[in-house]
Design goal:
alpha+beta, 4 domains, ten-stranded mixed β-sheet, 27 strands
Length: 939
């Protein structure tokens, strides 16, 4: 016998292996589903591991934080809007429900509508029992969020009565004020056996005060309808609550578009993108004709786009931003240079569209390319179309998964907090389903953290709660207590506040003293480990002026040398006649219709060839290309880089393979070697003239490319000496920046999941890497800019899962070792060393006499759900999505600063002593991970 999770694991092992079995599209072309419980790469289920959300083989866990801080506030908001609308319908007031919802709806026949208008339904207390379809979706800020898909596509009855008994239903009715005799009207095979004694059967209607039924009003026996209309009988739920399940046109559309029955509810509630509540995607009707008639539809013509480069916090509500407002049809389908701008792409794949007569036009996530183009043509011809923005629901293995949860509310009382939890369905494409029970975790310290720490003066919402959660989760993932320094690195608190001092502040944030005492005692146990710091492996080689100058000169050569057109889309035909305005003139910007990425890739090859020879590794180490095609649903002929791929694959990741003793395992150290288009020469409001010109990229991302080049010089000798336990791949990813949008990372991760990775050697021979397990990935993105308002801080940003947390601990230990070395070097050289000065013109490194101090850094460990983690804005998110253990090294990222995606990303952007320290820490972490015999043991 196999349980639910064992079935899912077995399916997942076979679902994704094989070329083309797991395509990964750009976030700007399809926001993919989150994979929950087990990931596509080496999928495994950890029963009993609550951090992996699985307590037993038949349950789906809901943790304390998502319930208290997202689900419950979201359900309250939905209940408030729903009750308000239905209350006005029931009592004959202007309600705003569309005519198409009510016309021909068996839940709201004419006799019921007339009675409402005549004020004859005032006796109905409006008890709403409305099962919702919820699932988790991902947004382009990397947030994994509970999302409303609409009403349950299983109908009103199934989830409402699932697992119920007389006591549960009696308590619900009592809460609603319905304390008289109650019965159920349904077929015996439609309700749990525990409720059979409550069936109405042959009992006279007059003998009961409340009748529980989910039958639409028109389908009820005449005696029941008459008793209700006469005010002698209460129906629970109110007949008004069932109109959302009985929309005749959506029931018809469901034959072509599965789960279309969800949609009617979405038209009643407003779009919500706040992080700390249930997400509600936009839906409505599209009609962009100049003259349009009122057909009873809710017209929503405008759409505010999102993208991962927006200069706002990742947990902000983007619907308040008007900068990226478009007509819906433009957002869905337009490919013109003006509409694409710097960060937009058609998002039709994240939509479902139907015609005015409710025939399916497009099911975006499942559509063929030809169907997307046909839908675009139909919308261009004009007319009225229904749509919903559709972000695919979470996946358990290959299965779409929904939580069917009853929303229970009553006018005047709000939402019933003890409503049944319903059930979870993991649904296969052939409609086979696995049903699981929702299981609410009730771990006392986590309950306290989630609910008892609401007061965070001067901080963003839930800061203290999040700090406690990070400590508890990380301790559980590591399987052992944390060292205090590691715990301090996880906290978001004032920089001068120690871990002990922070513990002392918790009673001031808690709702009561006992709760604070419980949390403090638990955290003390969770942070009681010693700091097991051994000797560094490579750091003693990095405390030299020569190492610093090597970093400076390499970044300068890459940023300001021969390579200028370093975006994958280059050259851009619509650049002709544009000069970049005042910023372009000041920076001396010139563009040409030739992409320099090929030449830059060749340069990386040459550097690595020379290093292989210098370290006597010819025939052992190898520099190879991972070649692939830039493939999209829409055509972009004005991008020469895209157009080249239509003849033959012309994208490549450049990989230096450094051999270890175990050739079946590899540690990846990755950067991206392309650069972004500059906003200040593009946007007219910043003085630009729509010029697409790639940035110099000193910080973003030649600082990281330099780190990989220097890593090779120190890792190749370890390989020659037989010290590496496993391979190291130094991977220069292409196409991280828009419009390619993590293209190289997507291609690499797809090949790793599918076990289809084959690279090309310089002599054109194939290099098969499909049998290699990537056990760790370290992504470097922008490691040279030291933020002035919060100096000497960088982020260690792990991906999702326990393995990533263990890698983050290795990075933290490397940080501590560097700081120890820096202090020793500074004491030995001089007690009065100062910081390196910024060199504004970028032509020379900071002067050597006197030498500048070696800089101690504070690496903050920012978990993947932390609002301050920048993992989402990098290639690292792709690795995390598929389940490859990953950590991002990045500076203390501020997306609003000057010097990011503009003409100022030059050597003046580089703080050399900061960049030296972060480069050294990253190389040390990679080396220790590659050399560790016990990969997951604390270092």
């Amino acid at each position: 016998m196999t349980n639910a999770w064992q079935r899912i694991e077995a399916e997942a092992r076979a679902a994704f292996v094989g070329a083309g079995r797991f395509p990964i599209r750009a976030y700007s072309e399809l926001m993919p589903p989150p994979y929950v419980g087990l990931k596509p790469y080496a999928p495994r289920v950890d029963l009993g591991g609550v951090t992996d959300r699985i307590c037993d083989g038949e349950s789906f866990d809901l943790d304390e934080y998502e319930l208290a801080q997202s689900i419950e506030p979201g359900l309250d908001r939905i209940a408030e809007q729903l009750v308000h609308r239905l209350e006005r319908l029931l009592y004959g007031q202007a309600h705003g429900l569309s005519r198409t919802l009510l016309e021909g709806n068996p839940a709201w026949p004419v006799e019921l509508g007339d009675a409402a208008c005549d004020g004859l339904l005032a006796h109905d207390p409006l008890l709403v029992i409305c099962p919702l379809a919820l699932s988790r979706t991902q947004d382009d800020k990397g947030n994994d969020r509970w999302t409303l898909f609409g009403t349950s596509h299983d109908g009103a009855r199934a989830a409402s009565l699932h697992g119920g008994n007389e006591d549960v239903l009696a308590q619900l009715l009592h809460w609603a004020g319905l304390d008289g005799e109650w019965r159920i009207f349904a077929g015996a095979d439609e309700i749990p056996a525990e409720l059979h004694a409550r069936l109405l059967g042959d009992a006279p209607v007059a003998s009961v005060q409340t009748l529980v039924t989910f039958e639409p009003f028109a389908a009820l026996p005449a005696a029941i309808r008459a008793a209700y209309l006469a005010g002698k009988l209460i129906l629970a739920p109110s007949p008004a609550a069932l109109v959302l399940f009985e929309h005749p046109r959506y029931r018809e559309l469901a034959h072509e578009l599965p789960r279309a029955r969800q949609i009617a509810l979405l038209h009643l509630v407003s779009r919500v993108e706040d992080s700390f509540t249930i997400r509600i995607p936009q839906s409505g009707w599209l009609d962009e004709q100049e003259e349009r008639s009122d057909h009873g539809h809710r017209i929503v013509d405008d759409f505010i786009r999102t993208h991962r480069w927006q200069r706002i916090r990742r947990d902000a509500d983007i619907t308040r931003e008007d900068l990226y407002r478009n007509e819906v049809s433009v957002a869905l389908f337009s490919t013109t240079p003006e509409d694409v701008e710097l960060y937009n792409k058609p998002i039709a794949r994240n939509s479902q569209i139907w015609t005015e007569d409710y025939r399916l036009l497009l099911d975006g996530p499942r559509a063929q390319r030809s169907q997307i183009l046909e839908a675009a043509s139909a919308v261009d011809r004009g007319g009225r179309f229904g749509y919903r923005m559709y972000y695919p629901p979470m996946r358990l293995g290959p299965r779409d998964t929904f939580w069917h949860v009853p929303l229970v509310a009553r006018a005047g009382l709000g939402r019933y907090p003890r409503a049944p939890l319903g059930y979870v369905t993991a649904e296969a494409a052939d409609r086979d389903r696995i049903t699981m029970r929702p299981h609410v975790l009730r771990r006392p310290p986590h309950l306290a953290a989630a609910r008892a720490f609401p007061n965070d003066p001067g901080h963003s919402h839930h800061t203290t709660s999040h700090n406690i959660r990070k400590l508890l989760d990380t301790r559980a993932e590591l399987g052992e207590p944390l060292a205090p320094a590691h715990a301090r690195a996880l906290l978001h608190v004032a920089k001068d506040l120690s871990f002990e001092d922070w513990l002392g502040t918790l009673p001031t944030h808690a709702g009561n003293v006992e709760t604070a005492a419980l949390v403090v005692s638990t955290l003390r146990e969770a942070t009681s480990a010693p700091e097991p710091l051994g000797a560094p492996l490579l750091l003693d080689r990095f405390g030299t002026r020569a190492f610093a100058e090597q970093i400076w000169n390499t970044i300068a050569g890459l940023a300001h040398g021969a390579f200028r057109q370093k975006n994958d889309a280059d050259g851009i035909t619509v650049n002709r006649g544009k000069h970049g305005g005042r910023a372009g003139k000041a920076a001396g910007i010139h563009t040409h219709e030739k992409r320099d990425l090929e030449a830059l890739g060749d340069h990386l090859h040459a550097r690595y060839r020379d290093l292989i020879v210098a370290h006597d590794m010819v025939g052992r180490a190898d520099v190879v290309d991972h070649v692939f095609r830039w493939d999209t649903d829409f055509a972009f002929p004005w991008m020469e880089g895209w157009a080249k791929n239509q003849q033959a694959p012309s994208q490549r990741n450049v990989v230096l393979v450094i051999p270890g003793k175990d050739r079946t395992q590899a540690v990846v150290m990755a950067d991206h070697y392309d650069t972004a288009y500059m906003e200040d020469v593009y946007y007219p409001e910043q003085g630009g003239d729509l010029l697409r010109a790639p940035a110099f990229g000193a910080d973003d991302n030649h600082s990281s490319t330099t780190a990989l080049l220097l890593a090779a010089e120190h890792l190749l000798p370890l390989a020659r000496a037989g010290t590496l336990e496993r391979d190291v791949w130094l991977v220069h990813l292409t196409g991280e920046e828009y419009p390619a949008d993590c293209l190289g990372a997507r291609a690499l991760c797809q090949a790793l999941v599918e076990r289809s990775l084959v690279c090309t050697r310089e002599d054109r021979r194939a290099h098969d890497m499909s049998n290699v397990d990537v056990v760790a990935a370290f992504v470097l993105d922008m490691i040279g800019h030291n933020l002035e308002r919060d100096r000497d801080v960088f982020q260690i940003a792990p991906g999702e899962g326990a393995a990533s947390s263990r890698l983050a601990r290795r990075a933290h230990h490397a940080n501590l070792k560097w700081n120890r070395c820096a202090a020793e070097w500074n004491r030995a050289e001089s007690p009065k060393l100062g910081r390196a000065e910024r060199v504004r013109d970028g032509t020379r490194a900071p002067p050597p006499p006197p030498p500048f101090a070696h800089l101690a850094l504070h690496g903050e460990v920012r978990l993947e759900w932390d609002p301050r983690s920048a993992l989402f804005n990098t290639d690292g998110q792709i690795f995390s999505d598929v389940g490859i253990p990953v950590v991002l090294f990045m500076e203390n990222y501020d997306i609003r600063r000057t010097g990011y995606h503009d003409t100022h990303d030059t050597m003046a952007n580089i703080d050399l002593d900061y960049c030296v320290a972060l480069t050294a820490i990253a190389i040390e972490t990679v080396a220790e991970t590659a050399c560790a015999r016990d990969l997951w043991h604390a270092t």
